[in-house]
Amino acid sequence: MHKLMVSKIWISAFLLAVLVAGCSDSDKNAGAGNPGAPLTPPTVTSVTPLDGSTGVCPNNGLITATFSKPMNPATINTSFTLTLNGASVPGTVTYVVATQIATFTPSATLAASTTFNATITTGAADTFGNTLATNKMWTFTTSPPCPAPAAVALGAACTYGVLAGTTVTNTGNTHVTGPSPSGDLGLSPGSSVTGFQDSPFNTYVGSGTHTAGPGLVSGIIHLTDPPPPSATSAAAAQAALTVAYNDLAGRTAPAPATVAGDLGGLTLAPGIYKSTSTLQITGTLTLDGQGNANAVWIFQIASSLTTLGSSSVVLAGGASAHNIFWQVGSSATLGTNSTFNGSILALTSVTLTTGATLNGRALARNGAVTLDTNMVTVPACP
User: Fold this and answer.
1) 175-177 and 209-217 as β-strands: parallel, antiparallel, unpaired?
2) Strand partners, 327
3) Number of continuous H segments (helices) and E segments (strands) in the chain
């Protein structure tokens, strides 16, 4: 009898729990749990430009929104809009799954000294089908037309396709070339270069040592050659690299546009683009000179730069690799069979993985440059 009563109590308790669970509102406490939980509605955690900000450079306007959880990309394209006096501003929307960042890129330069309204509607849904509870809206005001950024003087580093502080190591048939007198490779203050053919196939100067390999350099390989008065020495190039790196890191005019996460899929006008963390490129990044052969791009990256395999930086509208500068706060890595344009000025190291193509320069201040079956083409110096 006692066992029967206990069983009845447990059965009643079970049925009551089922009843409570079935009758409760599944979304009642959705916002109080883990932001990534299936029942939690998504929110927009940050935007750029900031709500109410003024002085936003109209030349390189990028409008971004970061979500609290993974979103359904198909719903972002139709829910993210930019308007001026109620009329839609033409542009394209991209969403990067890895960073949960959506970016609205205007099709043309934004009007100067004008207030714009950005909106992400409740049509934006996460991967579980939950939508924003309310529309996310913010405004910003553009500045007068921003002056174009000036090019950066590379000085003695200009002729170098590869420059490192500790070692240069190559595997495979790498070729460093460029219009004469470009196409140099240098090392200072380190003393070891590995993987490039002996003389007479390559020309060596300096007191450092090298271990032979299949690589070719159309210019000169500078092995820890002495400081100036030789204006083309590796030491002189490292000194010039430090000056150029600090110049790039300190640029504030025109006002930098904030970028984050993945630049793949974007088309960027000339200007300064600033990241407070890491940047990566998946797929294709297009740099559009808008008909100006002297257009300049400066990327200020606080941490690392990584491009994925087979990704590419594509030039359009007269853009030139010589006028593209990537200031990297730590190290840069170019993915397998990727194509990259511009000069990389890295505080630590630069790695080109198998088959990566660089139209520009791999310049490392304190660390190594590592190569593997790469084509490095140095742009013409001014």
Assistant:
1) parallel
2) 300, 345
3) 3, 33
The whole-angstrom separation of Cα 197 and Cα 210 is 9
Asked if 114 contacts 132 with a C-beta cutoff of 8 angstroms, the reply is no
Q: Are 314 and 286 in contact, with CB atoms under 8 Å apart?
A: yes
Average pLDDT value for residue range 63-92 = 94
Contacts by 119-124 with C-beta closer than 8 Å and gap 24+? 119/80, 119/81, 119/82, 119/83, 120/44, 120/65, 120/76, 120/79, 120/80, 120/81, 121/79, 121/81, 122/79, 123/75, 123/78, 123/79, 124/42, 124/67, 124/71, 124/75, 124/76, 124/79, 124/80
pLDDT band at residue 32 under the 50/70/90 scheme? very low
| pLDDT, tens digit, 9 for 90 and up, residues 156-184 | 999 999 999 999 999 999 999 998 778 99
pLDDT digits (tens, 9 = 90+) for 223-260: 998 777 788 999 999 999 999 999 999 999 888 888 88
C-alpha torsion sign, points 259, 263, 268, 271: positive
Query: Of 2.40.160.10, 3.40.190.10, 3.20.20.60, 2.60.40.1220, which CATH number belongs to 44-142?
Result: 2.60.40.1220
Q: Where in the chain is the domain with CATH 2.60.40.1220?
A: 44-142
Nearest to 186 by CA among 239, 135, 141, 113: 239
Are the C-beta atoms of residues 94 and 103 closer than 8 Å to each other? yes
The closest alpha carbon to 362, from 352, 36, 372, 148, belongs to 352
- Which amino acid, residue 130? N
What pLDDT is stored for residue 37 in this prediction? 76
CA 382, 179, 159, 205 dihedral sign is negative
